[in-house]
Automatic annotation (TrEMBL):
It catalyses: betaine aldehyde + NAD(+) + H2O = glycine betaine + NADH + 2 H(+). It is an enzyme of class 1 (oxidoreductase). It comes from Pseudorhizobium tarimense. This is Betaine aldehyde dehydrogenase. Residues 16-476 form the Aldehyde dehydrogenase domain.
Amino acid sequence: MRAQPKASHFVDGEYVEDAAGAVIESIYPASGEVIAKLHAATSGIVERAVASAKRAQGEWAAMSPTARGRVLKRAAEIMRERNRELSELETLDTGKPIQETIVADPTSGADSLEFFGGIAATALNGSHIPLGGDWAYTKRVPLGVCVGIGAWNYPQQICCWKAAPALAAGNAMVFKPSENTPLGTLKIAEILIEAGLPKGVFNVIQGDRDTGPMLVNHPDVAKISLTGSVPTGRKVAGAAAGQMKHVTMELGGKSPLIVFDDADIDSAIGGAMLGNFYSTGQVCSNGTRVFVQKRIKEVFLSRLKARTEKIVVGDPLREETQIGPLVSRAQHEKVLAYIEKGKAEGARLITGGGIPNDFSGEGFYVQPTVFADVTDEMTIAREEIFGPVMCVLDFDDEADVVARANATEFGLSGGVFTADLTRAHRVVDQMQAGTLWINTYNLCPVEIPFGGSKQSGFGRENSAAALEHYTELKTVYVAMGPVQSPY
Ligand code: NAD
């Protein structure tokens, strides 16, 4: 098997196996071929991983932030040196084209390690509070053992987005990747050790929805950061609340992208395509409801159709491929079912709408698909599809489109394309979402906070704000004189 790792889990600085765990087959989405066989963590592996994190965390937190940051920055350098190898593994894990993974996956993971490695020495300071004669000070202290649980669309990036701020702040982490993409994060664990991370500070264990709760409910776990769907988020946040644990929830979306008739149309089409087709549409923040002002609707659609039909769909390991397969057979079936639902509910199919002719036999391919005349009530306009399916809706009036954009349980992201500066800011100000873009879409550099509102979750990843979610404040009151007691 061409991507078989040394063992399923990475615990306390080394690969470990427990063949008693349920078999997880790693399937290359482009061919359906089994490329590795791993085992889900047994309760014994979960215990070992949490115990090693707990033991290692004290030593790690006792190091100076500068020394911790040095390790993370070295790991970022190693990831960049091995970008090609890590990107190919990410492509095998996810089916995303190498053209993307080479620029967006290990590199964004490395950005995160470099950024948090760099700010560790300055962003964790507390404050001094004068109180007349007395005074107080605050410290930012790590939470302890944190659990990261990942989705399958950006396995290496998600792992680093969680591990980098957690480790920079002096926590230890046990990370569980999605059962669909078990391979890449093991390499990140290896690289962190090579960079000088003490054994046990970062551990990877495999598993699925039965394994996750063992981590979430473990009494030695202080925090869970989940990237996943809203239903999973509800379960994890509910379990964590029962034990008063910290949580960060990075969940799903059905985000609006509003294109006004004064926008640069070609740029807006580019933004809409990136926000629907990148990673075969498997991006949480995608602008899957594209509201186009009526005056430019048909021009927008005809140019969009022409550009969409030029997209190169194919073998993700070929450099020229722009769209690869979906991650799994289950996701393939789900996306095709939504496309059929769109047709049945009366949306106008502009292009795509099924499996590409060349790929009817193997791999989980779907044509990049555009529906027009989509209405707010249609299933494809309300539910997250997580595939390359763009829904174009139309509008006349600004206030009306803002209300429709907000009429969803989700609140992850949104965007607006317009040449009118005042309108751009007025509209994003009213949009109910955690991350918004003006005249672009889906750019998430590590310097800016990312996260959702409403059912899309809470907490923020990236930027110095992420450190707040991996630390808590300790306040110390210092009396400078005798106690004044009435007793
Ligand atoms: P999912 O919710 O099915 O699974 C996510 C992870 O949770 C997996 O590792 C899974 O094994 C684990 N899990 C499932 N049930 C669990 C439980 N009860 N307790 C603990 N862990 C459990 O999501 P998915 O299908 O892997 O990913 C797609 C979803 O993720 C989409 O909804 C997408 O929008 C969302 N997503 C969000 C972001 C973000 O940053 N907001 C980023 C990527 C993906």
